[in-house]
Amino acid sequence: MFRQWLALEAGADPAERSGAVRRAHEAFLAGGAVGAPVRRLIADSWQRSARASVGADQVAPVDLVDDDLDAHRREHLLGRVMPLFRELLGGIAEEGAHLLSVCDEQGRILWVEGHAEVRRRAERVNFVPGARWSESHAGTNAPGTALALGHPVQIFAAEHYCRPAQPWTCAAAPVRDPRTRRVLGVVDITGGDHLASPHSLALVQATARAAEAQLAALFPAAAPVRLLEVLGRDGALLHTGRSEAPVRLGARHSEIVLLLASHPEGLSGGRLALELYGERDVSPVTLRAELSRLRGVLGPLLASRPYRLTARVRTDRDTVAEALDAGDPSTALAAYRGPLLPLSEAPGVVRMRRQLEDRLRRALLARRDPELLDTWVRTPWGEDDLQAWEALVGALPPEAGAVPGARLEALRDAYGIGRPRGAGAPRSRGATFPQPPVA
């Protein structure tokens, strides 16, 4: 466990640290600068909260109530492991005067349980079922920041961005779908300063792992789910769905397995060669040699006549595409770890890479959600995306748009907007999105 995720180092005085962080918080609200002793991850979260125009005195909004909340609980996969959460954390929450909470992937609280008096106090800040505690709605807090970072975190007292939440300390860990590794939500414990210890963070992390193990046990062991990771990776990583370590594939083998996973019906030798080599004059012997070496890695998973995979292999590309099909760009963006096999020049791979990135960009531009757009433009593949910066500036209120506006003007100048036709324009590292025309 890395020290940066812990709120207090050994020997730190909680009262002294709380006061110092509170003064740093007020200085940040007044002037935008963040100094010691604020952790880097907290400073980054405060800045995200400010860009999302979260008010320092606001409380989380309530998104779901009554029948809508009940239906969402019944349908959500985390409901299947709620008995486990109660078993591992419920008694501790009751006896330790703190709360157990479970949120979905959007930061909406599904359940809050624990000490009755603590629950009544928490209701005053809308820490209740149905409330949305994502960073963009409630500022820095353990469930929202754990979702933003995809990592267990501890948030102590004045590290919370919104003042009403600053009397609380919390620790939260993401829970992932064991089949796809998509974040399903978070499990959290919330209470007083006594939770600012390594034990609380280790506890929620262990509980999240136990929940993932139980979810994995719900699916038949005879049909392991194989997953191919290709986003943001030069070489694919193949998870076999069993206990052994994942298989790291070389560049050409990564391309072949991705193409076959995307064509479960199989590909003829000629079609596979076209997808790999395009119109280049490559001997059929070259492809057969590559497939022979790959068969030594995959064994019976690779078959021929036509070339195909004998069992379904999901890809992280599928996860993004399915979220876009469902009209959920937030989940799609969270699952998008970068361009698909970014160094590959295989025509079939290049086509898939461009199609996926173009679909995701169009969804983000259409949604015009400032939090999603801000996430996109802060990645290496989106940092020079002029249209996304324009959409972000347009989606922000005037008082929050100064810094993005300055970046937009600098990017327009770099693209040569207003300069003679033919001036050069930068390209983002690994980006495949269409660049805007030069004026």
Automatic annotation (TrEMBL):
Q: Where is the sequence biased in composition, kind Low complexity?
A: 419-431
The highest taxon in the source lineage is Bacteria
Q: Where is this region: Disordered?
A: 419-439
Task: Describe the location of the GAF domain by residue ranges.
Answer: 116-214
Q: List the protein's name.
A: GAF domain-containing protein
Natural source organism:
Streptomyces radiopugnans
